[in-house]
Amino acid sequence: MSEAPHAYDVYQARRQRLRERCAAAGDAAAVVSRPANIRYLTGTAPERAALLLGVHDPGADVLLCAVPPGARPEEGRPDEALRLQLLDGPGADPAVAAATLALRQDRRPVAVEEHDLTVARHRAMASAAPGLSLTDLGGAVEQLRYVKDEEEISCLRIAAEITDQALGELLESILVGRTERHLALELERRLIDHGADGPAFASSVGTGPNAGLARHQPTDRRVEEGDFLTVSLGAVYRGYRCAIGRTFVIGTTPADWQVELYDLVFAAQRAGREALAPGAACRDVDRAARQVLTGAGYTEGLAPVTGHGVGLENVEDPQIAPAAMGKLDARVPVTVEPGVHLPGRGGVRIDDTLVVRPEADGGPELLTITTKELLAL
Predict the structure, then answer these.
(1) Which of 49, 55, 142, 351 sits CB 3.0–4.6 Å from 337 for a disulfide?
(2) Which structural domain, as residue segments, surrounds residue 14?
(3) Based on the domain organization, do 95 and 156 belong to the same domain?
């Protein structure tokens, strides 16, 4: 999908905020190499690219890339105010090329994303531009990305609508006898059919004893009557990613143990969702959901996190975990995804993507709206 012309102002404003941070740190330029950060600042994330940001000269911003951006719709289109520079050869490193250009322009020191660069790439930058003082940009761009603007949330909302549509159609089809792998592939095809750039992550389908396993890789096990069926999927729309997870029972009235386990996980997920509020400590949101499960005697095998942020990447800050530091802000999208798995029997996972909103605005905004009723399919 191409960006609307007015959206380009957004990218210039984001780069200006980064410029101000770099100026305060005494840097003359910055090299941004992490793909999600490049897309956040420019509107595009072509393969093998780096952004050279001129701290004192906005007109000096250069996107260095191996091929012209925009060749694939899912990459987005760059801000028109950017200068583009293609790399000289097929093996050229865009970060190294950006450092060389910064030295040529006598911009020093240069802040780089050390957490994204390998030691070898960092050394290559220093070697190619001797005398160019390299400092650490740290997570400056990630900090800017933490709170989303309404345009970003709109993209997440559309990604969630696509995801709900794909899941809803699958649930209307015949499931008994089909393999986990087949169902996962069908989900991803349906995401594309409904306008997604692609799946946000590898779709997971777990049946019977595999149900409820976190990050389960689909197998050739076939769906059987009486199985728990857990499904986890997400769509990408204009780079923004959402996630949903649901659990169902196949072909029959749920057994008592299935109803009991489902109700417990549903209660934990609801407690986590209700705890989302601006200013809430991330660890308190985790505790709200986790204590429902531990209070019922489920202490083994629980996921280390109850949820996490989403956006241009599948997993972003904040982490909703027992030892998480920090607090939530308004307009931060997160997942709440507790689950319980009973070895040899199966389990339940329920996952939603929500946006933190103040109570005055109606509280947390639920983006993924597929029913959480325990349906027998």
Answers:
(1) 351
(2) 5-143
(3) no
